[in-house]
Amino acid sequence: MELDKNCAWIEGVTHSPSPNYNERPEGIEIDLIVIHCISLPPKEFGGPFINDLFLNQLDKNVHPCFEEIAHLEVSAHFLIRRTGEIIQYVSLQDRAWHAGVSCFNGKEKCNDFSIGIELEGYDDFSYSEIQYQQLATLIKLLQQPWPHLTQNNIVGHCDIAPERKTDPGSAFDWKKLWCLL
Questions:
Q1: Which CATH class is domain 2-180?
Q2: Which of 100, 97, 18 has its CA nearest to residue 51?
Q3: Residue 108: burial class (beta carbons within 10 Å; 0-12, 13-18, 19+)
Q4: pLDDT digits (tens, 9 = 90+) for 99-117
Q5: What is the pLDDT of residues 40-70, one digit of tens each?
Q6: Residue among 21, 92, 90, 20 at smallest CA distance from 56
Q7: DSSP the chain
Q8: Geometric angle at alpha carbon 136, from 130 and 138, rounded to 5°
Q9: Given pLDDT bands bounded at 50, 70 and 90, which one contains residue 154?
Q10: pTM of the model as a whole
Q11: Can you give the pLDDT at residue 169?
Q12: CA nearest 35: which of 140, 143, 120, 147?
């Protein structure tokens, strides 16, 4: 894996461009990584449905829970599947729509200045070893152009939207991630 010359796309991962993004506000510097988790349907792994959601192709008739979310326009910069596969949906230079109403260190609208990384998982279900390894590798790569993305600037969705979100959840091993970094 390596960053392209524009620090926009990671070479050596799957690219699946999402329509759910826009430009970052002018003069905004990336200074936050937000870790999320997602599984569709909940607690089921390996299917096409996360990809379908981020590409606005989720069929609301496939599963009852999809009726509530099929209309959403959401994305993340990256998804790390349980197998370790990394998929990039949005250029790092653009604003992915992953954080929603959020605040970090007094700054609102975290999508403006963050990189969103989804882990295929569920709050209380252990993540795979390869996911931690790939997450650490990805973060180290992102730290090359943005060296200030240190432990203090790597948070869970729960940290920036605590009244709304719980991910990456109690099963996420922060100590393991810090050791790998």
A1: alpha beta
A2: 18
A3: exposed
A4: 999 999 999 999 999 999 9
A5: 999 999 999 999 999 999 999 999 999 999 9
A6: 20
A7: -EE-TTSSSEETSEE---S-EEEPPTTPPP-EEEEEEE-SSTT--SSSHHHHHHTT---TTSSTTHHHHTT-----SEEE-TTS-EEE-S-TTEEES-S-S-EETTEE-GGGTEEEEEEESBTTBPPPHHHHHHHHHHHHHHHTT-TT--GGGEEEHHHHSTTT--TT-TT--HHHHHHH-
A8: 100
A9: very high
A10: 0.97
A11: 95
A12: 120
Residue 158 main-chain phi, psi, to 5 deg: -60, -25
Active site residues: 118
pLDDT at 94: 98
Q: Name the token pair of 157.
A: 């969705």
Read off the pLDDT of each residue in 29-40 and give the average, rounded to a whole number.
Answer: 97
Residue 132's nearest CA partner among 95, 171, 159 is 171
Tokens of 84: 């370790």
Tokens of 77: 């910069």
How far apart are the C-alpha atoms of 178 and 59, rounded to whole Å?
38
